Amino acid sequence: MTTDDRPAPLIEVHTDPETLATAVAGELLNRIADAQAAGHVPDIGLTGGTIADAIHREVARMAADSGVDWGAVRFWFGDERFVDADSPDRNAVQARAAFLDEVGATRVHEVPAADQAPDAESAASSYSSTVRAEGNGGFDVLMLGVGPDGHIASLFPGHPGLDVTDAIATAVHDSPKPPPDRVTLTFEALDRSQAVWFLVSGDAKADAVARALADDGTIAETPARGVKGRAETTWFLDHAAASKL
Ligand SMILES: O=C1O[C@H](COP(=O)(O)O)[C@@H](O)[C@H](O)[C@H]1O
User: Fold this and answer.
1) Which is deepest, 51, 88, 215, 217, by most CB within 10 Å?
2) 37 C-alpha to center of ligand 1: Å?
3) Is 0.90 topped by the overall pTM?
4) How far is the CA of 50 from the centre of ligand 1 (A)?
5) In this predicted complex, what is the ipTM?
6) Which CATH number fits domain 8-238: 3.40.910.10, 3.30.360.10, 3.40.50.1360, 1.10.150.530?
């Protein structure tokens, strides 16, 4: 199935970032619980960013009533900033602080950090091996924040990472958004997801959302155009982010 054969994106608009975060957190907990009830260990792709952090905090708040077995869910990162393991810039550090440590998640697959790998290339290669060895062929739910420039994960407009087709993860240098060195999953890997959820809030991202969902446009200009779920693609927006649709 090519990306074009996949179901058309759904758009869910919430009043503000707070209601958006609560809605996505509730939906995520339901998806995980349903997968586990069906005897499946779900693979969940996490993203960094502002709205992701709010969602993660809502997951922690709502976790107790969810029935989720946190030892039976695998967490992954769509991208990571190549900084030291304890740096607050790291997506994994932020996600751990917001919910993973609090709920007691045990199967968290992090990208090697700058004090654990010699360079971003080695970290990308190591993460590719981990995904190949311990992943289940794709994410059940992949969450992606979107930058004002239309980037997803660490796939930035016009950057060489957009063209990598022979790897699961790749190194990124000279990122337009700091920090400059990063590791990102490639389109090849992101595109193996059953459900892709774009998470976007704020009017600074309204243009990027409109470009991503327009009939015409290129992935090189707006990388968010380059990923669709095999079974579902949903854009979770607040009013501000949806204001140019
Ligand atoms: O650098 C990154 O930025 C994006 C979006 O972040 P935001 O603060 O504009 O919401 C995020 O999706 C990505 O994972 C992260 O590394």
Assistant:
1) 51
2) 32
3) yes
4) 7
5) 0.96
6) 3.40.50.1360
